[in-house]
């Protein structure tokens, strides 16, 4: 079974997904999915990508290429296939990334200051993210810096979970 239609039908059966469900999950029309599974047409690259991603299969396998595994390899299986020297490079890179991520998180924590006002019953956390400089034109084409102030926002108003 090396055709797109054959592999699509096979993975739909293996994953216990109907053509209607695939159409719903991918946003591809039901008629197009039926055309793909009957072999009338093959999916173009954009739809092939959507189908492969939705079914969690390798795009090259779905296209019918020989000697390509159906499932996309996960990082652990790729890592285990590397020679020792390359595994050490991956370990080093991953460790550097982890340290950088922790430093970024620590820096954000360092820039959060607690403040409260006499009018407020609760304490407000403010995140200082940088400084903004204000300049004014003196009329002769020269600009003069008239001050700088921190850029702040309430932590509660900041987006969370983005890197």
Automatic annotation (TrEMBL):
Record-linked SUPFAM superfamilies: lambda repressor-like DNA-binding domains (SSF47413)
CDD domains, per database record: HTH_XRE (cd00093)
Keyword Transcription regulation: yes
Key words of the record: DNA-binding, Transcription, Transcription regulation
Pfam family, one: HTH_3
Residue span of region Disordered: 136-163
Occurrences of domain HTH cro/C1-type (ranges): 15-62
Name under which the protein is recorded: Helix-turn-helix domain-containing protein
Species lineage: Bacteria, Bacillati, Bacillota, Bacilli, Lactobacillales
